[in-house]
Amino acid sequence: MNTIELQQAIKEYAESIGIDKIGFTTAAPFRELKNRLVRQQELGYQSGFEEKDLDKRTEPALLLDQAESIIAIAIAYPSRMENSPRGKKGERRGIFCRASWGTDYHTVLRARLRLLEAFIIEHVPTARVKSMVDTGELSDRAVAERAGIGWSAKNCSIITPEFGSYVYLGEMITNIPFEPDEPMEDECGDCTLCLDACPTGALIVGGQLDATRCIAFLTQTKTTIPEEFRDKIGNRVYGCDTCQTICPKNRKKHNLHQEVFKPDPELAKPLLQPILSLSNRQFKERFGEVSGSWRGKNPIQRNAIIALAHFKEEAAVPELVGMLQNDPRPVMRGTIAWALGKIGTEEGFVAMEKSLVTEDDSDVRIELEKALDGWKKKQLSKYQPIIEDVLKWRYMLHYLSR
User: Fold this and answer.
1) Does any domain span residue 161?
2) How many Å apart are CA 334 and CA 360, to the nearest integer?
3) What is the pLDDT of residues 117-160, one digit of tens each?
4) Sign (positive/negative) of CA torsion 15, 17, 20, 23?
């Protein structure tokens, strides 16, 4: 079997194992990408999750000796949930982004890449391969763009004609010199809907993202989320889909054919309050199979607190008060102080005043003081009309008694 025949056989085999798109490109360095990454670092736009070594991110030959080609793959995931549960007062729900629905895509893509590796080595025993998904050194998006999987859109996603931007990406470096595919033409045109709709302004210009402002990144951090972003997070407990759902290229792209990614509605849109009391073991048992669990329970619990504040869910106040008094994690206590201030019940106000007496973390104290100050101002504004009426009548009585 010559290289051309092998390439065709790989395409056919890939389809048979559930790979939705496959493309080929050279293992030449990604020079333009390196320039962009340097600029991203200079501007402080990196998330910190990326590979630090820019050479490894842009030079495939550093990752596999005698690298000749890269095989890019894409597997579509659903954009629509069947039987989506609806939250209500007392039973509020959060939401995981679509990329975290169903089985963890890292597991699925790695398994299918391993099958593809075995197929190649069976036909070319001397072949050398190195596969990666998401957490590898190379930029999945840059590889997919050059291999013709789709174009790199203004929302920093790869958009495919068949599945929109709802695709997971992976790649395999190999020493086999396959014929490269042609990159696709950019079809975003003059559209700026994703830039306009981004809740935090994280999309600076088309194709440039300030990850430190991106909700998808913020929901994965383990530290306190800056106050300017909390209201904008809404009920998202992991990730953000706004720049995808607004995209015209994603209209009517439902992608329901991959059974492994069909969501369990109770996991994709979980009740918020039960999340607060999960132990590490319980969290792993419940959410461990979805990609959104990779950072552990702490970020999800913090995000659930923010979501309850978004709904001003008074039913959650007793549990939040208990956590404020007993939770050993300053990030949780500080977030709860802000949340109780947003919900605005007297029970929360009294609890915060008590906690301020004993709280020894300076950051939590700041959150408590701001929340209490906000509460007092609200109370003052609520009674201000009554005070003004009393003063007005006192003046009139004084005037009439003269």
Assistant:
1) yes
2) 12
3) 999 999 999 999 999 999 889 999 999 999 999 999 999 999 99
4) negative
Q: List CB contacts of 164: < 8 A, sequence separation 6 or more.
A: 79, 244, 247, 249, 250, 253, 255
**346 by DSSP, 3-state: which?**
helix
Which residue, of 140, 174, 208, is where some domain finishes?
A: 174
In a domain, 235, yes or no: no
Domain that holds residue 385: 313-402
Given 126, 148, 174, the domain boundary residue is 174
CB atoms within 10 A of CB 174: 25
CATH number of the domain bearing residue 367: 1.25.10.10
Residues 6 or more apart whose CB falls under 8 angstroms from that of 388 comprise none
Q: Is 160 within the bounds of a domain? A: yes
The SS3 of residue 73 is strand
The span from the CA of 21 to the CA of 119, in Å, is: 17
Distances (CA, A) of 270 to 76, 267, 275: 23, 5, 8
Domain count along the chain: 2
pLDDT at 394 (0 to 100) = 55
3-class SS of residue 263: coil
Residue-level pLDDT at 399:
52
Q: How confident is the model at residue 396 (pLDDT cuts 50, 70, 90)?
A: low
Domain presence at residue 229: no
**3-class SS string, 83-109:** CCCCCECCECECEECHHHCCCCHHHHH
Q: Which residues are paired to 167 by β-bridges?
A: 76
Residue 331 sits at the vertex; the CA angle it makes with 325 and 334, to the nearest 5 degrees, is 60
Q: Is the pLDDT of residue 391 over 70?
A: no
DSSP 204: E
pTM above 0.85, yes or no: yes
- Three-state secondary structure call for residue 231: helix
Q: How far apart are CA 395 and CA 311, in angstroms?
A: 43
pLDDT digits (tens, 9 = 90+) for 3-45: 999 999 999 999 999 999 999 999 999 988 888 888 888 778 7
Planar angle of CA 142, 143, 147, nearest 5 degrees? 120
- Backbone angle region of 108, left / alpha / beta, with phi > 0 → left and psi within -120 to 50 → alpha: alpha
Average pLDDT over residues 219-246: 97
Instruction: Give me the pLDDT at residue 357, please.
Output: 95
**Residues designated catalytic:** 134
- Classified as helix, coil or strand, 126 is coil
